[in-house]
User: What shape does this take?
Amino acid sequence: GAVVSQHPSWVICKSGTSVKIECRSLDFQATTMFWYRQFPKQSLMLMATSNEGSKATYEQGVEKDKFLINHASLTLSTLTVTSAHPEDSSFYICSALSGDSGNTIYFGEGSWLTVV
Amino acid sequence: GESVGLHLPTLSVQEGDNSIINCAYSNSASDYFIWYKQESGKGPQFIIDIRSNMDKRQGQRVTVLLNKTVKHLSLQIAATQPGDSAVYFCAENIAGGYNKLIFGAGTRLAVHP
Assistant: This one.
């Protein structure tokens, strides 16, 4: 079946630095990808919709200047957490929309971010 | 039975029993619903989906019921197994929402031998 890969699986960074998380659709093209954040024992919260070749659409309350999203190709979207703080520590999950499979959404395995 | 934990409610069942996990969705305009299973430290795993023009759909050991009148979704798992222990989320797709999924609060299913 279709696979969505996230890299890195886990990352530790220092406060004030930026960290980039990649989301790749390995065997299909995804014009639309989605980024979620999940804190421990909570649900997935949609952060933004990433559209290939255009600006991302952010959900209310998500700072677009802090969470930079780039979707430069049909198989790759990146989320950059800028000037990271400990409260940004979370599980970040992406999903990709496959138009080939009747608009099926496939999820990545997530990326753990710890800011120290 | 059910209990409300710090964030996620927990449903505890005995192995072999049937489990019913409930979800109240928020938007009457939602036209597509999915149940996901999430194991610790992993991404969501698709279980079963249903469109708003249906009220029941069955898969292997799982059944999803949709009641649009009260905006309620349920997931029934037959003969629950230890491997079913996980957190279960319902997700809704709002019609015209460009396929973005909004997730419910989630329920932790604990299966005891």
About this structure: The radius of gyration of chain B is 14 Å. Confidence is low (pLDDT under 50) at residues 1-6 of chain B. The CA atoms of residues 23 and 91 of chain B lie 9 Å apart.
